[in-house]
Structure formats: C-alpha cells, structure tokens
Amino acid sequence: MRTYDFSPLWRSTIGFDRLFDLAELAKREGEDNYPPYNIERLAEDRYQISLAVAGFAPDDISITAEQNVVTIEGSKSDNAEGDFLYRGISTRHFKRQFSLADYVQVKGAGFDNGLLKIELVREIPEAMKPRRIAINGVSADSVQKQLEAKAA
C-alpha cells in the first residue's frame, strides 16, 4: 500500500484541513463492499447516491444527515418467514457513511425495486458566490466604459 505525506501541502494551503483529514481517514479504513452503491452527478449541482439493498424494506433502513456526513444504516430482523434451503440474498446489518462537501444537502430519498436513491443538492449561499468588487467606489462596468471612451 502506498503512503502519502501531506506535510508539504500544509505549508502552502489554508483551510483545507478537512480535505487532508478525509484523505487520511480513507487511507486507514478498510473498505467494505456491502451494500454496493453508485454515486452519480445528475447536473452541475445535483448528485444521487444509489444503494442496492435487495431484501430490505424501507422500514429496515434509516438515513441520517449531520453536518457534512450522511449515514445509511440497514438492519433486518432475524424473523425469517419460512425455512430457507439456501439464502443467497444477504440481509446482514450495514452502515455506510458518505462525506459531503460544504453546502451539499440531502434533499430526499426514494426506494424503488431494491434500490435506495438519495438526492443531494449543492446550494451555495449568495454571500459565498463570486461577486465583482468596485475599486475606489467605481464599478467595473463604468471603468470599462471610460476605457472605451478614451479609445474612441
């Protein structure tokens, strides 16, 4: 396994602590492949997580969204209906966590044909969006008009 040293990046970056912590966490954790899942980008600011949870009912699954983490847990009661000669559909307990970027929120979830689909949307507040800054009280548009007038 490769090891990465992030110490050179600490010297020249500000505010990326969370990103480095996530990289370290991913390196340490052994990845469990159950249940299988997809992460899709539906649009520039819309995402969807799909989990294959065959054998589970919507009541057997809980979704929790906190700060920048969404947690999906599933547990099936051991009350098996009937005697199985072979049980190939896994219904073991699982807990899957996804780290979300800043301003990404869970908008809803649906369950259809054994797939749990979680809708995510990135909503950046107006105060955080890029804006043009005036220099000495003069807007950039009026500066552009002044330059055009001088050129003519």
From TrEMBL:
Taxonomic superkingdom: Bacteria
Alphabetical list of CDD domains matching this protein: ACD_IbpA-B_like
Limits of the SHSP domain: 28-138
Gene3D superfamilies the record matches: 2.60.40.790
Key words, A-Z: Stress response
InterPro entries from the UniProt entry: A-crystallin/Hsp20_dom, ACD_IbpA/B, HSP20-like_chaperone
PROSITE patterns according to UniProt: SHSP (PS01031)
PANTHER family (alphabetical): PTHR47062, SMALL HEAT SHOCK PROTEIN IBPA
Similarity field: Belongs to the small heat shock protein (HSP20) family.
UniProt name for this protein: Heat-shock protein
Organismal lineage: Bacteria, Pseudomonadati, Pseudomonadota, Alphaproteobacteria, Hyphomicrobiales
